[in-house]
Amino acid sequence: MAPAPIFAESTPLGLLGLAIGCAALTPIAFGWTMSASAIRTAAWFCLLFGGGGQLLAGLMALANKNLLGGTLFTLFSFNWLMNWWALSELAQGRVPDATIVLSVDVCFLVVFVVLTYAFGFFSKLLLVFMLDIDVLYALRITRELTHVRALGLPIACCTVLLAMIALWIAFALLVNPTAGREVFKLPGPAFTPR
């Protein structure tokens, strides 16, 4: 018999933090605003909701023996902390080194591709969620290598889609048990283990 979890399910907290972080980045990603004030404001949302919310969710998941979810949320929280730092630097006119960012993005893509497969054993929607992250990173890497600025629009669209999927899954996990029915559809696994 599995031990009782220490904390309540932390996935909704992590996903809501991710969605709020994505929402803060959306106006910048679409080029609607690039002022120092907008960049500083987005940086703080990335720090508090993306970084803080996902770190808390990840640590709670790890304490509950949820290795896969805990690893993803904790890892992603550090990525959001880097977003905070990079945006804070940009707001002060200092640009982070693109070569280092590219190298780390390639590593993240490798990690996320493998985790995409793993999350497919839980839900088709989680698989799509992770595929969106994979595409987002592939586009970021391609933009950095080719310097094609037009890739900014697909990156922005992936960011919005990521927030929407995160909200849907979080709402399903929060509302469905409360309502006693499936208000927000959450499809079953894409893959079955042997």
Tell me what the structure shows:
The protein is mainly alpha-helical. It has one domain. The chain is built from 6 helices and no strands. The longest helix has 28 residues. The chain is globular and about 55 Å long.
Key features?
0% strand, 6 helices, 194 residues, mainly alpha
Task: Outline the fold blueprint.
Blueprint (H helix, E strand, L loop, with lengths): L10 H19 L6 H28 L3 H25 L6 H22 L4 H23 L5 H28 L15
Helix pairs in contact: 1-2, 1-6, 2-3, 4-5, 5-6
- Total of helices: 6
* Measured distance between first and last alpha carbons: 21 Å
Number of domains: 1
Number of strands: 0
Helix coverage percent: over 70%
Major sheet details: none
Q: What overall geometry do the principal axes of the alpha carbons give?
A: globular
**pLDDT averaged over residues:** 96
Strand content: under 5%
SSE string, helix = H, strand = E? HHHHHH
Rg: 17 Å
Q: Which structural class best describes the helix and strand composition? A: mainly alpha
> Which spans have pLDDT < 50 for at least 5 consecutive residues?
none
